[in-house]
Amino acid sequence: MLPYRIKVVEPIQLLPAPVREKKINEAGLNVFRLKSQDVYIDLLTDSGTSAMSTLQWSKIMLGDESYAGSESFFRLQNSVQEIFGLPFILPTHQGRAAEHLLDMALIKPGMLVPGNIHFDTTRAHIELAKGRTFDVTFEEGHSSTGDNPFKGNLDCKALEACIEKAGVEKIAYVLITITCNSNGGQPVSMENIAAVSKICRHHKIKLFFDAARFAENAFFIQQREKDFQKKPIPEIVQRMFSYVDGCTMSAKKDALVPMGGFLALRDESLFESLKTLGVLYEGFYTYGGLSGMDMEAMAQGLKEVIDENYIHYSVGQVQRLGEKLKKAGVPTVTPFGGHGIFIDGRRFYPNIPENQFPAQLVCVELYKNGGVRSVEAGACMAGRNPDTGANIRPTMDLCRMAIPRRAYTHEHLDYVADAVIETFEKGKTKKTGLLMTEEPSTGIRHFSAGFKYA
Ligand code: P71
Predict the structure, then answer these.
(1) Which of 30, 270, 348, 405 has a CA-to-CA distance to 166 between 20 and 30 Å?
(2) CA contacts within 13 A on the Cβ side of 345
(3) Sign of the alpha-carbon torsion through 181, 184, 187, 188
(4) Sequence ranges of the chain with CATH classification 3.90.1150.10
(5) CA 115, 119, 124, 130: dihedral to nearest 10 degrees?
(6) pTM more than 0.85
(7) What is the CATH class of 17-39+307-453?
(8) Which of 43, 119, 341, 405 is the pocket-test mutation for ligand 1 (most atoms within 8 Å of CB)?
(9) Best of 253, 339, 381, 447 for a ligand 1 pocket test (most atoms within 8 Å of beta carbon)
(10) How far, in Å, is the centroid of ligand 1 from the Cα of 118?
(11) What is the per-residue pLDDT across 277-335, written as a single tens digit (0 to 9) for each?
């Protein structure tokens, strides 16, 4: 059931195929370098691209832009306290800013942050603070096939072994990313969250969520975990957060806003030290780089994202696209994730050498065939080992089609399915991929890298 109707529309256009080819060549075969107006259906990211509701827009008028003690901050605080049960909140301009503050406070050089696959900005901030990530995703989470319902789960034995080997004092904190973006938007079960929490409590190690897609994770728990099938989403969310010391949040995903983020914490003394850092990097602690309007929209969005009708439809749209592709034999990560469909580049182009960026080629060809913009989450995004400089070989080379929430209809996504299927049929005999010709010397390379055909 579609739980909304459309009140405002945004025109989009499909450029003719020869123009698309010219545009992507000019962009160095990197979809990040395309102009949005040259894209027909934009599945680059679900981050900040969802549609806001009438209530969110109306709350924007209530934005209190006072520098200190803004009413909007208190409304956001109330929402977060109510939904997550975490008492302290520090707004930040987006998710990575929350990561930055937390890592500056908790990481000393050489410390580890074990977790399921960390998102790339998360890893970058941990490394910036001179820490290192440690992947304890359980084995099946690294495979694009199979039907394990909770591929985001952490391997508790690997976590225990990591703590044992490094020593408790070397563990900065443990991070659970819900859902796990990097392996396909895969959820973490309540049972696993509880088990990880038990280990952390035993060792007195802090446990955090990267909560960007917390509502989608709660939905999968409701759909797939035995004890939660009749439980309402808000109750599942409360229970999930009862196991952690806090979270970083990119509100651009599951708070349904174009911009925003926050840290939510249980521990007052950590909150006090983060407040000081926040003032330096983000702004006063009752706005943290956001306008009062942003905080209002966020406070409201957090309430809407845990609505049963909303979450059923929005994750359902993603599953429906996945099923269409599966029927046509397109190789994707299974089970389908919460926020997008991830094409397996190595299986999509089985004859292309894996060091020639097959997933990046899927993105390029999909744009050329249909004006659809996706994003590579594979060998280019993985970057280089910070210690050796060698290219990291990710276990999967993926092309992600992220579905902005409430923005596209089934009709748009049927068009996308047809474009993907056409690209797949055309590409079966391709034998050569792409070579990277431009690479920034520092930072996250996939934004600005340039390619040529091999
Ligand atoms: C996504 C993004 C946005 C993005 C970021 C970098 C390159 C391309 C696209 C952002 C996340 C995320 C998780 C799990 C933290 C952040 C950072 N994802 N954790 O998937 O997925 O949040 O963008 O608000 O700073 O397209 P931020």
Answers:
(1) 270
(2) 34
(3) negative
(4) 17-39+307-453
(5) -10
(6) yes
(7) alpha beta
(8) 119
(9) 253
(10) 11
(11) 999 999 999 999 999 999 999 999 999 999 999 999 999 999 999 999 999 999 999 99
